[in-house]
């Protein structure tokens, strides 16, 4: 298929911290856009849902329709501009996807499908019907927790962000398979390549050679779509990866530097301070200090992340702490101490909470009988499920479904 997509140049230098910032972690934002934004290049990842309105979003020089049901996952290597039609303002719901709290992608080797979905497939998908309703319900659930700033509420929000990413990846993989023949502009392809090979010893010359062009042409194209040349683009990606890794409890500076692609700790320190205005340790200290109405206490060790990930991945199975202990080769006492120290709860409490949140989503988005839902999320019988559900929500599963679905007779 011939390349019919041409890069759209940005107008002006990119701005930062429009939708991100220390006070916006784990918070739902709602924005109305009635004109056009300046070019934006955030240092965090964002989920954006268009609730109403019509317009366009231009990402790394490529324009996409932006209308009701559009769901976007933007990364820190994206420079974007949002434009609303003059007579149809855009109403947006936005969440910062906080990688250190929500994802293993920064520290673990993701599966090939995940790499394809995030790095290759489009950052924009169009949702309709039950798929759109599911994401809306998750945004609504996220918003309900906005008045709480405690570990339990934060855990729920992290789980919702994880569901966003899982949902997006599944749909992006399918969309990517249908879009294999599309030919993208040089700037788009080169930015994705830099974003997925940041840890390697790449140069403008080596990347340009890969795309059968010159380093000067590559730099000109990157500046055209993002305002940054190759070196600046690569350093931004590496600094943003390092920023996430710094917030794990057991990550040494030498490991963070190596993981992020820096040639040495000295280079890491110098470049990090140049791009953030602070040293790595100063950045860590600032980010771990809780701001107003912000909970940042969930920065955790890899070991605890392993425990929580196992709980999330296995919530529909009748697992208990013994199963987790065997699967992760950790003692039960270590697991208990880790969970209790961070969340003030038992491992069983965390597992039950995960199951109940998934059950609530099924009650809102499906017509499955309560018994089927109970079994689906890992309860042995409907009685124990209903009892646990009532304890959390102060109502039965049937009452919850009726109340939140407008009194429908299910």
Describe, in short, the structure shown.
The chain is of the alpha+beta class.
Structural class category:
alpha+beta
- Rounded mean pLDDT is 82
Considering the protein shown, what is the CATH homologous superfamily of the largest domain?
Regulatory protein AraC
Helix fraction bin: 40-55%
Tally of domains: 3
Largest sheet: 5 strands, antiparallel
Measured between the Cα atoms of the first and last residue, the distance is: 49 Å
Number of helices: 18
Strand content: 5-15%
Q: In CATH's first tier, which class of the largest domain applies?
A: Mainly Beta
What sequence of helices (H) and strands (E) makes up the elements?
EEEEEEEHHEHHHHHHHHHHHHHHHH
- Our Rg estimate from Cα atoms comes to 22 Å
CATH topology of the largest domain: Jelly Rolls
The backbone outline, from C-alpha atoms, is globular
Number of strands: 8
pLDDT under 50 segments (min length 5)?
A: 103-110
Domain HTH araC/xylS-type: 188-286, 302-403
Pfam family, one: HTH_18
Protein name: Helix-turn-helix domain-containing protein
Keywords: DNA-binding, Transcription, Transcription regulation
């Amino acid at each position: 298929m011939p390349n019919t997509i041409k890069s759209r140049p940005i107008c002006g230098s990119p701005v930062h911290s429009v939708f991100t910032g220390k006070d916006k972690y784990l918070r739902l934002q709602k924005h109305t856009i009635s004109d056009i934004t300046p070019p934006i290049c955030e240092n965090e990842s964002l989920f954006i849902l268009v609730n109403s309105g019509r317009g366009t979003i231009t990402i790394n020089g490529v324009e996409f329709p932006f209308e009701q049901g559009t769901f976007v996952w933007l990364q820190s290597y994206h420079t974007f501009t949002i434009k609303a039609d003059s007579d149809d303002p855009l109403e947006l719901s936005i969440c910062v996807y906080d990688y250190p709290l929500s994802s293993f992608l920064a520290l673990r080797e993701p599966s090939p499908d995940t790499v394809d979905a995030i790095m290759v497939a489009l950052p924009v998908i169009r949702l309709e019907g039950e798929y759109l309703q599911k994401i809306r319900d998750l945004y609504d659930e996220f918003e309900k927790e906005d008045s709480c700033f405690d570990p339990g509420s934060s855990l729920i929000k992290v789980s919702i962000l994880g569901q966003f990413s899982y949902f997006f990846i599944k749909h992006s993989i399918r969309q990517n398979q249908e879009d294999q023949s599309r030919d993208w502009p040089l700037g788009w392809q080169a930015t994705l390549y830099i974003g997925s090979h940041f840890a390697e010893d790449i140069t403008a010359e080596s990347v340009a050679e890969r795309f059968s062009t010159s380093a000067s042409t590559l730099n000109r194209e990157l500046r055209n779509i993002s305002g940054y040349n190759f070196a600046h683009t690569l350093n931004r990606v590496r600094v943003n990866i390092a920023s996430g890794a710094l917030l794990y409890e057991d990550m040494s500076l030498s490991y963070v530097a190596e993981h992020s692609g820096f040639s040495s700790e000295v280079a890491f320190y110098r470049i990090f301070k140049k791009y953030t205005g602070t040293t790595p340790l100063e950045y860590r200290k600032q980010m771990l200090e809780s701001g107003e109405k912000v909970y940042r206490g969930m920065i955790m060790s890899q070991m605890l992340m392993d425990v929580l990930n196992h709980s999330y991945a296995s919530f529909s199975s009748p697992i208990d702490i013994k199963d987790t202990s065997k699967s992760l080769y950790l003692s039960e006492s270590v697991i208990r101490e880790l969970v209790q120290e961070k969340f003030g709860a038992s491992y069983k409490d965390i597992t039950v909470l995960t199951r109940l949140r998934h059950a609530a989503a099924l009650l809102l988005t499906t017509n499955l009988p309560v018994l089927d839902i109970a079994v689906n999320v890992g309860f042995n019988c409907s009685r124990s499920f209903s009892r646990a559900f009532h304890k959390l929500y102060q109502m039965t599963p049937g009452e919850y479904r009726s109340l939140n679905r407008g009194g429908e007779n299910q």
